[in-house]
Amino acid sequence: MPVSTTPSPLHAESLQDDPRIIEAKRLIAAAVSDHAAKIDSVSPPQAERGEHYQSIIADYTRDRGAPPIWPYFSSGMGNGPYVELADGSVKLDFIGGIGVHGCGHSHPDMVAASVDAALEDTVMQGNLQQNVPSVQMLSRLTTLACESGAALAHAILSTSGAMANENALKLAFHHAQPASRVIAFDNAFAGRSIAMAAVTDRPAYRDGIPTAINVDYLPFLDPHDPAGSTKRATDTLKKLLARNPKQYAAFWAEPIAGEGGYYPGSHDFFAALCRPLRAAGIPIIFDEIQSFSRTSRPFAFQHYGLDEFADIVTIGKITQVCATLYRKEFHPTAPIISQTFTGSTAAIRAGLKTLDLLESSGCFGDEGGNARRHQYFAAAMEKLAQKHEGLIGGPYGEGMMMVFTPGDGSLEQAKMLMGLLFDVGLLGFLCGAAPTRIRFLPPPTITTNAHIDTAIELLDQGLTQMKAKLS
Ligand SMILES: Cc1ncc(COP(=O)(O)O)c(C=O)c1O
Questions:
Q1: Of 360, 380, 408, which marks where a domain is finished?
Q2: Ligand 1 atom closest to Cα of 254?
Q3: Confidence check: pLDDT of 34 > 80
Q4: 171 C-alpha to center of ligand 1: Å?
Q5: 191 lines ligand 1 (CB under 6 A)
Q6: How far apart are the C-alpha atoms of 465 and 272, rounded to whole Å?
Q7: Are strands 124-125 and 343-344 parallel, antiparallel or unpaired?
Q8: In this structure, which residue's CA is closest to atom 3 in ligand 1?
Q9: Which residue among 30, 107, 321, 377 is least enclosed by CB atoms within 10 Å?
Q10: Residues 85, 131: one domain?
Q11: Is 383 found in the same domain as 330?
């Protein structure tokens, strides 16, 4: 008997091909699309829902022990950059949970990914129970990361950015043992675990937390003094390397300062630091948890031409599932990394779809969507700054990491404007300290200039109200 080369279909494949499933998916997609289409502009809360919404906020405050950061409780639906809240209001969501809604709200591909995930028997994948999309995600990420010469051959998935960074530091410490210190930048933010609280340059975020790692800080690139700040950073690095020889296990850096205020890096600034770090054999970690997908290339280290220096890279947020990518030589020789959960099946499938959409929607390239939308935003902000003198300051960030300094740069004024914007229907969030800034992370795959125009109109309204309050 000849041996057949075609395997019989898996039951999971037969399920996908079942006409009932195909029809059910078609109906779900059509229903979501019909209802989402009605969410197409900003609108105020419904008065009749006010009491119920207040009770949601009160329940949260009681159970969480503190009020929500802002009164955002979503209905679970939206359309593009618009999101419907449970009070019936519709907001232009230009923050997206800090960069998580990369395809906007209720995107058909995201809904389809979640439906497909729901048909799989595994809710959360992990080291002992991986479905095939996990493998696809690892392969997509390493391929993207190596696109222009980086040697990031391997990857590990995880469920949070903090854990991706923990895994990154573990790999670096393991590789560089017994070195134990880390170099980071002033105003760094690495996450909320005990180790990441040590790396993060916000004393309040580690109040009462024992110091897990000794970290030394370098000044970041100053947009007003690139040459001077590069010199200050390289001089500080030189001093640290001389003071603590063989003690550094990692240089940990966000290529674009995120929580620190959305200040871009540059090739020259990073190369000036990475060369001596390389010469000293100190592993270089780029944290791209916030910057991934937002510049002219998938990774900001590629955007700045730093591929040769990338030893370990972390991503999260927009990819839904987080990951630590690393060069071959960092593969651990002891079982230092393992997790019950590496990511939910829905997150992995939605992450894969997001990567597809990022690549197919023209975000990348020197003249790609991210760069063009940034220019459009910056020009509109310059115009608005003329109208509202003294209330808008640059610089305006990089790519789809957009930002401005409101008013006098104080926390009070930034918070005031953020609240006013929330009420008029535009979602942006604080970052930085001295000055405190307001950032926007619009979805790279679907944001149009028309959406930016709407954001500018709402900002205009918010600033007019701010001016009235301040006078
Ligand atoms: C640069 C950077 N690293 C790490 C983290 C931590 O990620 P997560 O909140 O998913 O733990 C964040 C989150 O804002 C971040 O912006």
A1: 360
A2: 1
A3: yes
A4: 18
A5: yes
A6: 45
A7: antiparallel
A8: 190
A9: 30
A10: no
A11: no
Measured by CA distance, the residue closest to atom 5 of ligand 1 is 191
* Contact in structure between 307 and 269 (CB atoms under 8 Å): no
Torsion sign (Cα): 115, 120, 125, 127: negative
Question: Tell me, what's the pLDDT at 459?
Answer: 98
Tokens of 163: 């854990």
Separation of 437 CA from ligand 1 center, angstroms? Answer: 18
How confident is the model over 337-386, as pLDDT tens digits? 999 999 999 999 999 999 999 999 999 999 999 999 999 999 999 999 99
Beta bridge partners of 182: 215, 250
CA of 191 to the centre of ligand 1 (A): 5
**pLDDT value for 147:** 97
Binding site membership of 197 for ligand 1 (Cβ less than 6 Å): no
Residues 305 and 395 in one domain: no
Q: What is the DSSP string of 216-257?
A: EEEPPPPTT-HHHHHHHHHHHHHHHHHHSTT-EEEEEE-SEE
| One domain, residues 181 and 263 | yes
pLDDT in tens, 140-149: 999 999 999 9
Choose among 288, 450, 306, 349: nearest CA to 112. Answer: 349
Decide if 247 contacts 213 (C-beta within 8 A). Answer: no
Report the percentage of the chain scoring pLDDT > 90.
99
Q: What are the pLDDT digits (tens) for 326-349?
A: 999 999 999 999 999 999 999 999
Same domain, 85 and 157: no
Of all protein residues, whose CA lies closest to atom 16 belonging to ligand 1?
A: 290
Q: Which ligand 1 atom is the nearest neighbour of the CA of 192?
A: 11
At 3, is the pLDDT very low, low, confident or very high (cuts 50, 70, 90)? low
Residue 285: beta bridge partners? Answer: 252, 312
**Closest to 73 (Cα-Cα) out of 56, 95, 58:** 56
Q: What is the mean pLDDT of residues 308-335?
A: 98
Q: Structurally, how many domains does the chain consist of?
A: 3
Residue ranges of alpha helices (H) inside 305-410 are 345-360, 369-387
Q: Pocket of ligand 1, candidates 166, 167, 189: which has the most ligand atoms within 8 Å of its Cβ, to mutate?
A: 189
Closest atom, ligand 1, to C-alpha of 160: 10
The three-state secondary structure class of 398 is: strand
Ligand 1 centre to CA of 207 (Å) is: 19
What digits encode the pLDDT tens for the residues 72-106? 999 999 999 999 999 999 999 999 999 999 999 99
195 and 231, same domain (yes or no): yes
Please check whether residues 385 and 340 belong to one and the same domain: no
Q: If you measure from the C-alpha of residue 190 to the centroid of ligand 1, how many angstroms do you get, rounded to a whole number?
A: 6
Ligand 1 pocket member 190 (CB < 6 A): yes
